[in-house]
Every structure is written in structure tokens, then in C-alpha cells.
Amino acid sequence: xxxxxxxxxxxxxxxxxxxGFTACGSDDDDNGGGGSKSTTIDGKSYxxxxxxxxxxxxxxxxxxxxxxxxxxxxxxxxxxxxxLSIKTGSNVTGVVTGTFDAEATFFxxxxxxxxxxxxxxxxxxxxxxxxxxxSNYVVTIPQTTIxxxxxxxxxxxxxxxxFSFNYTGSIVYYEDMMEEGVK
Length: 183
Prior knowledge:
183 residues; mainly beta; globular
């Protein structure tokens, strides 16, 4: 799990640094998106209104964020991301439906060109249910506990925290998610 968390943190930093060097002005992309969402970690709610998917090596990768990652025009002031790695055991060509075991990694960070501050971070094994309702996906992780992480060290031995996740909305393919190194 610790390696998975550090991989996601590295990717988040790469995205923010790349956007930070090319962007200027205020960002209107960090308003939470169009999905209906409810994410709670250790009693605090996060708005993860954008859903993305990618696949590699028989795994489906889902990422939910408060920012529209593929369409960023400037560096957001805060990034909240829930990443799910689901081993499907088959060639994945789209979002699959059903109930799966998944590895979940969550982090929240405030971005400033001079300093990035990591807030909440957690990871753990969860049961995720994915269904389709019309053109929307419904992704649910019922109340469970996952490990809190010390964002500075990546240590996941700092205790368990309550966690739940509900999302209803679109999940779009994000090719760059895999090209940035999450394999």
C-alpha cells in the first residue's frame, strides 16, 4: 500500500508542477464538477465531482477528483483525489460494473507555487460497487475503515479512519493517467 500511495502522490505533484509552470490567473476548474458525490474521510466531506478511468495489465484504474484534470487551465489551489485500483483479471476496455475488491488511495493537498501542503491522506482495501443508471455510473464504497497516512513520510501506521464514498456521474477515459506512470 505504501508504494501505491507514493506513486499517486508523485503523479499528483507532476500534474501540479506541469500545470503550475504553464498556467496563470485564477482557475475555474476546481469547483467540483457535475457528478453527484459524497466522500467522507474521518468525518470530513470532500467534493469529488470528476470521474476518470484508465486500464493496464488487467487492472481498471478509477480516479475521482475535485478538479477536471485533463482540462486544467491553471494550477488549482487545492486538489483532492480518490484513486481506486481494481484487478479485473481481464483485458479492460471500459468501466466494468459489479462488486470488486479494490485498493483505495486518497489524498488532499493545497497547492501554492512556493509550497505544497498535504492535508488528509488515507489508503486501504475496500469493496467497491459500480453500476450504470442511464448514462451515469454509480460508484459506491459503503462505510468502512482505511489507514490514515502521514503525508510527509508516507507511513500508513498512524491509525484507522472511517471512510465512505458515493458518486453518480460520468466517468471519462483519461489516457494521460497511465502515461504519467501509474501501471
